[in-house]
Amino acid sequence: MPGASENERRAAVAQQLHQDVTAEAWAKARRWEQVREQQAAAKAHRAEAAAAQPADVVVDEPVAPVVLPAPRPAAVVPAPEPEPEFADVDEDQELVLEDLTPDQVRDWRVRGLKDHQVVFDHIDRHGEASARRLFSNQLVDQAQHHSRLGHLDLGYTTWGQA
Fold first, then answer.
1. Given 57, 90, 100, 162, which residue has the most CB atoms within 10 angstroms?
2. How far apart are CA 47 and CA 54, in angstroms?
């Protein structure tokens, strides 16, 4: 529409848009009507099939078997022990990782999580490879990262002191 005014162009665009939206709405309505017809036909077919079967014959649909878990023996719950004190650990004792029980390994890791100096002391005495085996790579990396950060002083400083 090269010679049309702005109002004529807008009217033509609005008319075309109205036609497109109306056509799309009618197409969508027709699709839904077809779906409803198919559903009704399927329902009627199922009703006919059910009516055609004798009442005393029951068709079992395949059902997935139900598998129940095997019963587990009741767990023996020991009396709660107080949280272990770390002061009773002999620091001068040579640490052999293969000789540690899972509880001892857990205690070492808890100590390392609470105080990173435990990790650094272990590295100094037994090497970084041993520390990574005992505490985990993540904890050793975390301790080393925090040591490089230094300490933050969030106290009050004046501009003259800064």
1. 100
2. 13
